[in-house]
Design a protein that fits this description.
- With 415 residues, the chain is α/β, with parallel strands linked by helices.
- It is 47% helix and 14% strand.
- The strands form two sheets. An eight-stranded mixed β-sheet has the order 3-2-1-4-7-6-10-5, sandwiched between helices.
- Helix 1 runs antiparallel to helix 11 (293-318), helix 2 runs parallel beside helix 3 and helix 12 (322-343) crosses helix 13 (361-378).
- The longest helix has 26 residues, at 293-318.
- It starts with a helix and ends in a 6-residue tail after the last helix.
Length: 415
């Protein structure tokens, strides 16, 4: 099997992610990320909620402590018919805070439709900040996002995510380094042209009028007639760019979340992300040519590598050359682990892990490519929340709205 074309794809993707992107960031210097401290609009933070238990209280409290004028900040929680006591905990956290609104969907609608409902509720807001229900935001997170809306055509600004349980075990240590490169390096190329193709649902701000403009497209998303509930953040970001708006990403706005601490959780996450990548990259081919030429090349090469690399791995196994490709993975992963160690050497010990912690990725990477890419292709019409499928264990709290104003309860119904 002639692997030259695939090796060429690998080199193109590697160059774009780890060389060209960081080079452009350094070349542009201060022009790479502009800010405007005079812009101070009304902001609504929308939190789609499903089976989060008591954890939603910490998310709400962190948002109430934001370094942003409270009279300009509204918090809207949209419960998607949680099967646990999440709704009750949200009502409890909202007590005494007139700028916190808690609603409940009449039926399980999925994360995207829940966010859309929150957007419609926030009639006075100019900016919508989407925050996942399992994250804790830094107190300057909202302000740092807002500062990046320096031009009217910038429709979305995303923030980064830190792993809180990075020291729990070998898996969370590996994920910590993976997150480091995914956020510190891999978005630089797209950031250089204000065409960041995926802004995380963990923490992203949008112009409300753009979300309303795109709502019919977002509501109708389906494959083979099955509504899709995964990858909504990637799909939304692509639709924003498709409609000639710009997307921005900043490291100065951030939040914290726990990474999967076992292989079952990690594999479930990776399968969901692989489906999202495939669906969106394939769907975007029809208009990829509208992107900046450099981004178009990067976009197409990523998809080609994603589809072809499992074939390479399987071919190596069949030909008895698996150890060769494994050694190649260890070489690349080991180099990245060394770079991580250099870049984080100034951080306190509790904020970093050993660079050697990234080595398990050398084995997990070919395994996930070989198994999950074909599996994702066969299950693209999945409508599941995946990682939100079962209620979290939490102290029981009776879902009574006593003492909570009707503003907090909104249009929500109780179960």
């Amino acid at each position: 099997m002639d692997l030259f074309p695939i090796h060429l794809l690998f080199i193109v993707v590697l160059m774009n992610r780890y060389i060209l992107g960081p080079f452009l960031r350094r070349l542009k210097g201060k022009r790479f990320e502009r800010v405007d401290d005079t812009y101070q609009p009304r902001v609504a933070v929308v939190i789609p909620l499903f089976n989060e238990g008591r954890g939603i209280v910490d998310t709400i409290n962190a948002l109430l402590a934001q370094d942003y004028p409270s009279e300009l900040l509204q918090i809207i929680i949209v419960d998607d018919c949680s099967q646990d006591d999440s709704f009750a905990w949200a009502l409890k956290a909202a007590e005494g805070h007139r700028n916190v609104v808690v609603t409940r969907n009449p039926e399980n609608m999925g994360k995207r439709k829940g966010i859309n409902r929150g957007v419609r509720t926030a009639e006075d807001a100019e900016i919508i900040v989407s925050v996942d229900s399992d994250v804790i935001v830094d107190r300057r997170a909202v302000r740092e996002l807002i500062r990046r809306f320096v031009e009217p055509n910038i429709a979305a600004v995303g923030g980064r995510t830190y792993v809180t349980n990075r020291h729990q075990n070998w898996l969370t240590k590996m994920i910590e380094i993976k997150f480091h490169f995914a956020q510190q390096w891999l978005k630089d190329l797209e950031r250089s042209f204000r065409q960041v193709m995926c802004l995380s649902g963990c923490l992203t701000a949008y112009r409300r009028h753009v979300l309303l403009e795109l709502e019919p497209i977002l509501e109708a998303r389906a494959i083979a007639g099955v509504p899709i509930k995964y990858g909504e953040d990637r799909f939304l970001t692509r639709q924003i760019i498709k409609h000639h708006y710009e997307t921005v990403y900043t490291l100065d706005s951030f939040c914290f979340t726990a990474a999967p601490a076992n292989l079952a959780g990690y594999f479930a996450q990776q399968l969901r992300w692989r489906r999202s990548n495939l669906v969106d990259l394939l769907s975007g081919l029809s208009h990829a040519w509208r992107l900046h030429p450099v981004i178009t090349i990067h976009y197409v090469s990523q998809l080609a590598l994603l589809l072809s690399y499992p074939v390479v791995i399987v071919a190596n196994v069949i030909n008895g050359e698996f150890w060769d490709i494994l050694a190649f993975h260890f070489l690349i992963i080991g180099l990245l682990g060394f770079i991580y160690r250099l870049e984080t050497r100034h951080l306190p010990a509790d904020r970093r892990v050993s660079g050697a912690s990234f080595l398990p990725m050398a084995l997990l990477m070919p395994v996930t490519y070989a198994l999950f890419t074909p599996l994702a292709l066969l299950t693209l019409d999945s409508g599941s929340w995946e990682t939100r499928g079962s209620p979290k264990a939490a102290p029981t709290l009776s879902p009574s709205p006593q003492g909570v104003s009707s503003t907090h309860a909104g249009e929500g119904t109780q179960s």
